[in-house]
Each structure stands twice: as structure tokens, then as C-alpha cells.
Amino acid sequence: MQGLSLPSDWGYVLRLNPKGAEVELSPETLQVLAQVEGKPIAQVLVAPGVLRLARVLHTLLQVKALEAVPRVEVPPALLIVLPIYGPGSGVAYVDEALYAEWARAIRHGFRLRLLGREATMEVRPRPNIPGRLGLLEEDLRRLRLRRGDKVEAVPEV
Predict the structure, then answer these.
(1) ∠ CA(54), CA(57), CA(58), 5° rounding?
(2) How is domain 77-156 classified at the CATH fold level?
(3) Radius of gyration of the chain from Cα atoms?
């Protein structure tokens, strides 16, 4: 497969790239795009016509219509909300140990999703807050949360 560029980890899952630019695709490429979204690269490449699929997959990844991301299989963490005072929004803080555990499991950049709130935020480690989710005041108001509320959070690629 000389000349093809695919991610080295074929366990990564293919998904539409939310940051992808508008590109014109051939009917064959559109058909492949519809077939591969949500599937691991390895599963796509064991189908009949693997070289043709690899070429189309290469094209979709190069034009950034698709991106390859790791499959996240981390159970939700039940955390207690802790106010973090200061300006800003869109950042959630978790204990360093939990952040490190997630980082080891995912090996890719990730954000935090609050289940039941359908909110995603940048996530950063912070020392000495085990079992807590630190949220800035503006986010507390926006999400209608208070100190001591319990939330479920998961990392999301």
C-alpha cells in the first residue's frame, strides 16, 4: 500500500470530522463515507476490495472529511460539584489521579461530557479534589448546578 497514509492504530474509530471543510466527493467516495462512519479502521479494511477501500479512506482522511479517534470505553465517574471561583467558563477540573487514569486509557486529547446535561467542556487536572468536579461560577449558573450536586462525567474524544 505504498503511497497511502492511514493512522497507525487501526483500532481507532472513524467519524465525520466536525472541523472538516466542505469538499466535493465522488459518488463512490460518498458511498464509502456512509459505510465507514463509526467503525474501527481494522473492520473497514477487512471488507472485500481492501485496496480500493484503503485508497478511498486515505482520500477521506486527507481532505479531513473523516478523522480517526480512539474508542473511549471508560465508565462514567460520579462526581460532586465544587465551585471554582474566578472568571471564565467552559473548563472543568477533576482530580489529577482521575485525569491521569483517563489519559492512560484514551491516549488522545479529550474533553469532559456531563451526562444528563449534554454539555461538553475542556477538562484540566487539579490536585487534591478527589471525587469532585470543579466548575467555574458562570458554568454553574449555565448548567443550573450548585455545590454538592452529584453529576456523572465521562471523557470524550
Answers:
(1) 85
(2) Barwin-like endoglucanases (2.40.40)
(3) 19
